[in-house]
């Protein structure tokens, strides 16, 4: 690619306006449809669980090859509802990674279950499944893989271990909607529909983002579906009859209008992200102090984040350099969960999860969304290269 850096440096007004996530640009094409949908809700007054929510539930179910979909208020609730649907006992153990958004572990602790952390793989940032069996105890009930940054965990191994030890698998699919896992026998399954229950978030910056909070729980299993529907609605079985303790978690109609419009574009959004990742991969290859994200051969990658490892302690300096060039970048995640004050009671120490801890020092996520132009991508790559020259 032609180096545009000198042109931009001579004419700072030409520096492209780059966002980590560009929701405004994405909205442009959908504006008329969304405006119309919002007007309809204002006129009908069906603000909660209205017709747009039912339409979204149906369309998302079709997208997920027939999985039962329970729309809910956010991704954190989705995880909590999923765990509640499994009828676990206090102290039952759930295995997940300490390199994730806090919600994953938070709901385990809120339900008085026990979080058992497992380290991640250095390349994919997902659960290191080689360590799974050594962490299983008589109290283990759930494996909770987080498909981090947009690609599935090693589901061949997770499903095999789960079957062998009769465990549930709950997928945290908040960052990987639309990604596909191919099993070693050739079966291809969409992220979030592989385990017993899948959970997702439609937080605005997610690959499929609402304009406020929203989430969903998926399952292919009818019994779980009934329990999940009920738990998301106060545990109601029939009108004003409560068979279980539930929570109040519902999607509002405005969010469903936005999600319906965007669901039709999700494949294109994910392809645009893959294109941007391809440009990053090509342009940044060969910089010695940078490790590019590794795409697991069994999973497609929908690049919720494009996350580099910056070696030699140069991460923070690179971030500052990019900021000077008006290129935003983010650290997901700066602190591992096992060393957080709130999770001290789990008894983990510094050094317990070395790959996670090292990742917290090295990761840097670059701008990633469906509207990145070649000019923007080129400018970002040139800005990174200029740091190492
Ligand atoms: C966003 C996210 C959540 C939580 O979703 P909310 O809608 O913000 O509650 C959970 N897990 C992961 C991995 C996430 O990225």
What features would you highlight for this structure?
37% helix, Aspartate Aminotransferase, domain 1, 2 domains, binds pyridoxal-5'-phosphate, 14 strands, Aspartate Aminotransferase, domain 2, three-stranded antiparallel sheet, 13 helices, 14% strand
In the CATH hierarchy, what is the class of the largest domain? Alpha Beta
The CATH superfamily of the largest domain is Type I PLP-dependent aspartate aminotransferase-like (Major domain)
Rg: 21 Å
Ligands in the model, by name, code or SMILES, are: pyridoxal-5'-phosphate
Structural class: alpha/beta
Segments where pLDDT lies below 50 for 5+ residues?
none
The CATH architecture category of the largest domain equals 3-Layer(aba) Sandwich
Helical content, roughly? 25-40%
Give the topology string: H per helix, E per strand. HHHHEHEHEEHEEEEEHEEHHEEHHEH
What is the CATH fold-level name of the largest domain? Aspartate Aminotransferase, domain 2
Compact overview of the structure:
With 389 residues, the chain is an alpha/beta fold. The chain has 2 domains: 31-117 and 127-263, 3-Layer(aba) Sandwich (Aspartate Aminotransferase, domain 2); 266-388, Aspartate Aminotransferase, domain 1 (Alpha-Beta Complex), CATH 3.90.1150.
């Amino acid at each position: 690619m032609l180096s545009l850096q000198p042109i931009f440096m001579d004419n700072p007004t030409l520096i492209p306006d780059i966002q980590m996530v560009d929701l405004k640009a994405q909205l442009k094409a959908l504006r008329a449809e969304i405006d119309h949908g919002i007007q309809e809700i204002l006129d009908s007054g069906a603000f909660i669980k209205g017709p747009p929510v039912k339409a979204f539930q149906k369309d998302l179910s079709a997208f997920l090859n027939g999985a039962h979909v329970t729309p809910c208020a956010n991704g954190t609730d989705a995880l909590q509802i999923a765990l509640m649907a499994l009828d676990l006992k206090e102290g039952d153990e759930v295995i997940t990674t300490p390199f994730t958004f806090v919600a994953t572990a938070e709901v385990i602790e809120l339900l008085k279950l026990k979080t058992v952390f497992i380290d991640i793989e250095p390349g994919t940032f997902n659960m290191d499944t080689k360590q799974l069996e050594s962490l299983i105890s008589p109290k283990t009930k759930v494996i909770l893989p987080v498909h981090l940054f947009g690609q599935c965990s090693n589901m061949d191994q997770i499903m095999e271990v789960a079957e062998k030890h009769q465990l549930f698998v709950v997928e945290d699919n908040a960052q990987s909607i639309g990604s596909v896992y191919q099993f070693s026998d050739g079966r291809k399954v969409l992220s979030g529909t592989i385990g017993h229950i899948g959970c997702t978030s439609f937080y605005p910056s997610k690959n499929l983002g609402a304009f406020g909070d929203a989430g969903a729980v998926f399952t292919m299993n009818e019994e779980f579906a009934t329990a999940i529907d009920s738990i998301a609605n106060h545990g109601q079985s029939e009108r004003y009859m409560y068979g279980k303790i539930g929570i109040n978690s519902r999607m509002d109609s405005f969010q469903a209008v936005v999600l319906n419009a965007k669901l039709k574009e999700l494949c294109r959004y994910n392809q645009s992200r893959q294109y941007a990742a391809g440009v990053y991969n090509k342009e940044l290859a060969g910089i010695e102090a940078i490790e590019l994200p590794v795409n697991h051969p069994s999973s497609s990658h929908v690049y919720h984040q494009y996350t580099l490892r910056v070696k030699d302690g140069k991460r923070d300096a690179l971030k500052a350099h990019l900021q000077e060039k008006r290129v935003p970048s983010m650290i997901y995640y700066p602190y591992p969960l096992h060393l957080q004050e709130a999770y001290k009671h789990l008894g983990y120490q510094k050094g317990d999860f070395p790959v996670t801890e090292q990742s917290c020092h090295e990761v840097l996520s670059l701008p990633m969304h469906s509207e990145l132009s070649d000019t923007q991508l080129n400018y970002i790559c040139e800005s990174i290269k200029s740091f190492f020259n």
